[in-house]
């Protein structure tokens, strides 16, 4: 008989279990992407200073954020 492993998410301790009623957690849920419009000006020094923060945001949340760059507010 195959033994199930039960892990406590708070302590990280895993033990074997004979209980057949184990709760599973699905981490592959389908989340809608957030569309983020970034309006920038290539001549703006503040916009260039914000670039490292924007890149970090995209790296950490690339699965849930879709970024659209706009060079002018007139495009709307």
From TrEMBL:
Gene3D superfamilies, per database record: Glutaredoxin
Q: What is this protein called?
A: DsbA family protein
């Amino acid at each position: 008989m195959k033994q199930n492993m039960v892990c406590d998410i708070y302590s990280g301790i895993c033990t074997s279990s004979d209980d057949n009623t184990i709760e599973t957690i699905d981490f592959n849920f389908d989340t809608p992407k957030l569309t983020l419009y970034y309006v920038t000006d290539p001549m703006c020094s503040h916009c260039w200073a914000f670039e490292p923060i924007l890149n970090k945001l995209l790296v950490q949340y690339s699965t849930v954020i879709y970024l659209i760059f706009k060079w002018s507010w007139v495009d709307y």
